[in-house]
Write a structure and sequence with these properties.
- A hairpin with a 6-residue loop joins strand 1 (about 10-15) and strand 2 (about 25-45).
- The chain has helices at about 65, 105-115, 165-170; strands spanning about 10-15, 25-45, 50-60, 75, 80-85, 95-100, 120-125, 130-140, 155-160, 180-185, 185-195, 200, 205, 205-210.
- It contains three helices and 14 strands.
- The radius of gyration is 21 Å and the shape is elongated.
- The strands form three sheets. The protein has a six-stranded antiparallel barrel with strand order 1-2-3-6-5-4. A six-stranded antiparallel barrel has the order 7-8-9-14-11-10. It has a two-stranded antiparallel sheet with strand order 12-13.
- It starts with 9 loop residues before the first strand and ends with a strand.
- It has two domains: about 5-105, Bacteriophage SPP1 head-tail adaptor protein (Thrombin, subunit H), CATH 2.40.10; about 105-210, Beta Barrel (Thrombin, subunit H), CATH 2.40.10.
- Helices cover about 10% and strands about 50% of the residues.
């Protein structure tokens, strides 16, 4: 027995990666789907643990939906969801069912920064001019022993820095090696910057920084 048409009442836009910029863009065709919530689940992105929602998305089987994979992002009534798996149907019914979780969004990152973070000063030293400073929220931790490899050494710090705060301050992004992050009397020297781990559906929420100090 197929899914009743009346249950396919959620507007679903399938997003695809742009070929020109590190972003997603909507597909030209909108699908109608069904959605069943499943509750909360936790995930770790880089050094940040986030609490997400999960659910099951049902779509009609066609060439576009058949191409969806765990690299895909969809919008259900305007809210972004990541596909994390595809269910195997017991028998063909013309429908495809996907396990999905909410794509981490600005409000989730903002909540983490507000609850766990500190307000730091991000500083760039400029020759023959005053330093360029900006306040930003950041979560500063160490690395776990199993993460000590390559250029990461004992004593280095992981700093998850709010990209939204830097944009709001009109600071010259992105952070780069030898920029400083100041917290009280403590000064961290930026060694490496990751601008991809916390880029979700094309939106950069945070920089993940390896720092010494």
């Amino acid at each position: 027995m197929g899914t009743p048409a009346g249950l396919l009442n959620r507007r679903v836009a399938i997003l695809r990666r742009s070929l020109t910029v590190p972003d997603y863009e909507p597909a030209t065709e909108v699908q109608w789907g069904g959605f069943r919530p499943r509750g909360a689940r936790a995930t770790t992105i880089g050094g940040l643990r986030l609490n997400l929602s999960s659910g099951v998305l049902t779509l009609r089987d066609n060439a576009m939906t058949r191409a969806l994979s765990t690299a895909s992002v969809v919008e259900v009534d305007g809210e972004a969801w990541e596909i994390i798996g595809r269910q195997i149907a017991e028998k063909p019914d013309g429908m495809l069912r996907f396990d999905v979780q909410t794509a981490p969004a600005s409000d989730m990152y903002g909540s983490e920064f507000n609850s766990r973070g500190d307000v730091v000063t991000v500083r760039r030293i400029v020759s023959n001019a005053p330093p360029v400073d900006a306040p930003a929220r950041a979560i500063i931790t160490g690395y776990r022993p199993e993460e000590i490899a390559g250029g990461i050494q004992f004593g280095h710090s992981r700093i998850i820095l709010s990209a939204a705060d830097l944009r709001a301050a009109n600071w010259p992004e992105p952070p780069r090696a030898n920029d400083k992050i100041l917290l009280g009397t403590k000064s961290y020297n930026v060694l490496a910057v990751d601008a991809n781990t916390h880029r979700i559906a094309g939106v950069l929420h945070a920089y993940e920084i390896q720092a010494a100090g």
